[in-house]
Amino acid sequence: MFEDDDNPDPRERFERTKKLPIYKKAEEISELVRHLVKSVEKTDLKFKRKGEKQLLNHSLAYLMENSLIIPAKIMGAEVVEQYDLKMENAAIIRKAARELVTDTHGIEMTGFKDTEYLDLLRKEVDELRILFAEWVKTFDPWDYIIDRWGLFNPPGINYDDHDPDDDIPFDPNNFPEEFFDDDFEEDSFDEDMDDEED
After folding, report:
1. For bias kind Acidic residues, which ranges apply (predicted)?
2. Which of 5, 32, 67, 75 is the most exposed place for a label (fewest CB within 10 A)?
3. What is the spatial distance between Cα 69 and Cα 14, in angstroms, rounded to a whole number?
4. How many beta carbons lie within 10 A of that of residue 161, not counting itself?
């Protein structure tokens, strides 16, 4: 997503992500949900069946939770490079967005009459869906680690494919000399360890 530099500063990446259309839409949805929840809580609803009040409370709690998950997971997807990790975040976003719509039906079933709020939320989620589909297209499928669970591999990659990285020999006793700091004093390390134990 950020092609102009390989390792942008985390704060800079955060600021850039906040400017993405999908992130802005997610924030708008969170704000709308906050207003919707307040509106429902202020409404004097007449419950006809036992358990409707609990259903409403659960729906409102899920509504808030799902609206907060979406921007957090967009941010999460933007701070990683690997395709499988981006797709894992994307799947959570999709689930949360779909549940927002389900939650609106739960609220409607309890007798909440101001359905224009619910309709507006559904419309916003549909707009998010389009931004989401375009955003996912920007994920680089060639920057991946094989997902051995088989869920988030790029097209053409299977969970049981051979990973060429597995052929790279690893000897924990074979580190280049540059790896070790010449200024390292073993005695001072032992002293620090003794201090921690006290």
Report:
1. 178-198
2. 5
3. 16
4. 11
**Residue 14 three-state SS:** helix
pTM exceeds 0.70: yes
| Distance, first Cα to last Cα, the chain | 49
Distance CA 82, CA 97 (A): 23
3-state secondary structure string across 98-135? HHHHHHHHHHHHCCCCCHHHHHHHHHHHHHHHHHHHHH
Nearest to 22 by CA among 84, 97, 83, 104: 97
Total count of residues recorded for the chain: 198
- pLDDT average per 10 residues of sequence, the chain (198 residues): 57 90 98 93 78 82 96 95 94 97 87 87 97 96 88 88 75 71 56 57
Helices 10-18, 21-42: axis angle to 10 degrees equals: 70
Q: For 101-131, b where at least 16 C-beta lie within 10 A, e where not — what string?
A: eebbebbeebebeeeebbeebeebbeebeeb
How far is it, in rounded angstroms, from Cα 64 to Cα 58? Answer: 10
d(CA 33, CA 39) in angstroms, rounded, equals: 10
SS3 84: helix
